[in-house]
Amino acid sequence: MCRKKRKISRRSFIGEASCAALGSTAFLSSALNLGMINTAAARPHIIGNPNDYKSMVCILLAGGADTHNVLVPTETSEYQDYLNTRSSLALDINANPPELLDLNYNNAGQTFAVHAGMPDVKTMFDNGDLAFIANIGTLIEPIADANDYFNGGNQLPLGLYSHSDQIMQWQTSVPQSRSAVGVGGRMADLLYDMNTLDNISMNISLDGRNRFQAGNTIVEYAINNTTSAQNIGFDGFPSWWSDQGFLSAVKDSAIGSMVEDNYANIFHETFGDLSRQNIQSNAIFETALANVTPLSTTFSPTRLSQDLKKIAEVMSVRSHLGANRQIFFTTFGGWDHHDNVLGNQAVMLPMLNDALNEFNDAMAELGIHDDVITFTISDFARTLTSNGNGSDHAWGGNQMIMGGPITGNTIYGEYPSLALNGPLNLSDRGRILPKVSVDEFYADIALWFGVSPNDLDYILPNLCNFYSTSGCPVDPPSGYTPLGMF
Amino acid sequence: MPRNTITLFALFWLLTYSIIGLGQIETYVLGQGNYQGTVIQSSHESGESQAVNTLSDDGFLPNLNAASRFLSQATLGHNYEDIEAVADMGIEDWIDAEIAKPVSFSLMDKVIEYHDYRRDSLNDPEAGQSIRFWDYAWWQYHMTSDDALRQRIAFALSEIMVISRFSGFGNESYAFASYYDIFMNHAFGNFRDLLQDVTYHPAMGNYLTYLNNPKSDTIEGTFPDENYAREVMQLFTIGLYELNNDGTPVLDTSGNAIPTYTNVEISEFSKIFTGLSWGDRTEFFKGALNDSSYLITMNMFDDYHEPGVKNLLNGFQVPDRNPVDGNADISNALDNLFAHQNVGPFISKILIQRLITSNPSPEYIDRVATVFNDNGMGVRGDMAATVKAILLDDEARRCENIDDINYGRLREPFIRYFQINKAFDASTLSGNYRNDMNYVQIFVQQKPNTSPSVFNFFQNDYQPIGPIEQGGFVAPEFQITNSQSITGYINGLYEWIIDENIADEYDLFSGEDNDGYADEISTIDISDEQMYADDAYLHQLIDRLNLILAHGLLTPMTEQVIIDAVKEFEQADADDLELRTKLAIYLVLSSPEYLIHR
């Protein structure tokens, strides 16, 4: 007979678990930071007034978008560098019909254009609803230039140029770890008390499970762009089968038992937790979505447009979800253009353009244009040189942020030289060292969203390597300041 | 119809909470013995089967529960008779018999058959193929062939050397069928041959963009595509870090893991994978000639292959061949990868994760990798020996592991669906099966070759938050477990079992007579269960389902929850008994004891 009892009490398990949680986030292990977590968790977050609503939408351009053809330098010598390096992948500034649309922007002689598939992005940029962040990428600490990089001594992100690592690091902002949770998750860990319903997550995903929205205590709630009050939850059961009183009794007794009793297998426990949250959230969502009024803004039939439409609808019933803060996430995949980058981008960038423009209109329609930001992230940018007619994995690139709260019509960060002998190029393939850290980008967003400056280290444990926040143990290097996007 | 006050929704609640929440202390037993042919007993008191070690000349024979547990590691699905067969034969004999079975079916032939059928029916020799041919061919193979272990390993390999419908050739049934045949053919062959066929297959060449990938052009400033160079290392052979034979990372003096390669090696390997194009073309840079182009291995065009020395892994150098010989370069490079010390532990661990447990011990990985490295006769990469080592290992077989709170894995949702078809003998009148599994994919976010990227449906190091992440463990299948797929699976169960829509079948061409394929529509058979659906025999019903689906791991509490629920329904006539049976199946398949395989 094989028989073995292994028993672990819930109380002792929780004790171990919370120790393990701290241990697994090694970057928080200093005594200073241990104190900080407690402080952060204890700090109440106040909702100023009934209209204090803020929301962010993260669009993951999965696969590593070739963003050096999204935002292109047009000043004569910089464009010549672009042309020389990108060769057959370069967009032609003189083409007719145009391949590039000039932005209404001039930074001490530096001028730029966007891909011609993005006319509304140009318009929104010109109107101040949209900004670019130039040469942004995953970093642990600043690296001055290619020489500094090759001299070694700098901490580098794990698995540079690899999809699985870089796509994760853009979502965690902890490039030295493969087990870190997400930036959006950590924000929700701290700010969950700004929302009034416990059983609905601050973080709502249109693309299932993702790292960005996973926190130490928060897990995302996933819907899809066809979710409605009519189809949410378990279907197929005639209404006469339902008995809410019975359901409630079962639930209450089971929850009561759970607190008192023992957990066993970790897979069982995890599945149970997910199922329980799911069932509770379904019930709340069903009620909320019944209040959706159709938007007059029309959305394209693409997946991204429909995802953003659903997000707008969920925002419109935020009061039924008890939500003063919301973090949305979706994925627009298919950007790994090792092949036919020009042809693929000519199809996909207009989809992105249209979806962003439609969503911007919908925010205005809902009266929350000044409360919502939308931004893109992507695994990495791509090699400047061609592999024939595509490009390969690289590092620093350009991203967009949109919405009323930001100062638009600006390019944050410094657009790099694209010459192969430029100071930031790391390879004969044209891989650009990023100069803006993902940390700096998220820091602005977190502060706007309501995270206390004292808690920024919890959200962005590497931020102190770039500039000082209230919690930094040692002085950071000079030369870095907040981006100031808001 | 009987009326009652309980809802399936509520029952799911109760199962979820009570089973997980109340957290049964794990005392359930799968004996290693039991006399062959023993019929499972009704177990009113405990839900446990009697487990008695029975040492025969063949060694330990598994009891029925242990046989069922083994089958849900070694197959994609099984029924009661399969359990009896394993219990009678013994596990090792069963494995040997499976390995000895020849490949019984060609997916490609079936696709061509469907294509011919369409051409003939439409009387149009130019009629095109349809991706549905591939879906139907896959399903036909798996419903009608008895090489269950081969099917299981092929499916696992399809989740390592991934191609996906979400690609430029996503509607090409020829591409998927002929590619999947590689896994069927090499499931028990040699890993080096597998790597060879995958590398030269135009579907992979297309998917990872090295088909029509030319050498460097210094004038144009173009370089070889790095896509395959990277992924063949990261995902198909060696992974990111130098590994000990037990799968743990080799550490440098500072305690850091050591990368297996840098961008320098990727650049060198990218030169290797240049010069390949369609096998039925005589010129480089041409497109596919027709559907059949996917049946022919890629052709090397030496004029487009990067000349010169290539510095690969572990100091190995591909010589500067003159004249250029791209195939020889590739052969050298695949040998270099195959010889790398990581391949054994890397591939062994992934296969263990798919078949047995998400967090195998280093000792387990070491034992299996040792067999991969040398099957005892000096052969490296023997897949049959590796598979056998995985399945026969103590850590797979010993029942004590079931009680280890960190042991097990979440059953892949597609495999749950497949198991329903097997457990309840899905059949058609004609023996031809149509199923494109589209709704399955919508419900559970998984079906063969539909992952979002080359990184599969889930990654092998995925950690859901909670005790798994806190303990430093992984649970890959949780990456596709979210509010959409949890709800979707429950709704799928309703569709497949209660609504009796077990398969998704459609016309093979516009205008096909629907009645013409009525005999290709699957139905499941629950008559063996339904005979126990009235109150007097309900325990037998639950015991039977417990055996087939959960290998005896349902707790007494879950059994009671299900019995109480079923008893809420009347038992006056056959329709009542059918509904009761369906409800019991639905609830067993919703239970955490079923969903978590231990």
Describe this structure in words.
The complex is a heterodimer of chains A (486) and B (598). Chain A is α/β, with parallel strands linked by helices and 486 residues long. Chain A folds into 2 domains: 339 residues, 3-Layer(aba) Sandwich (Alkaline Phosphatase, subunit A); 50 residues, no CATH class. Chain A is 35% helix and 12% strand. In chain A, the strands form 2 sheets. In chain A, strands 1, 5, 6, 7, 8, 9, 10, 11 and 12 form a 9-stranded mixed sheet that branches. A 3-stranded antiparallel sheet of chain A has the order 2-4-3. In chain A, helix 10 runs parallel beside helix 11. The longest helix of chain A is centred in the C-terminal third of the chain and has 25 residues. By secondary structure, chain B is mainly α. Among the domains of chain B are: 209 residues, no CATH class; 113 residues, no CATH class; 61 residues. Chain B is globular, with a radius of gyration of 25 Å. The N terminus of chain B is likely disordered. At the A-B interface, helix 1, helix 6, strand 7, helix 8 and helix 9 of A face helix 1, helix 11, helix 12, strand 7 and helix 20 of B.
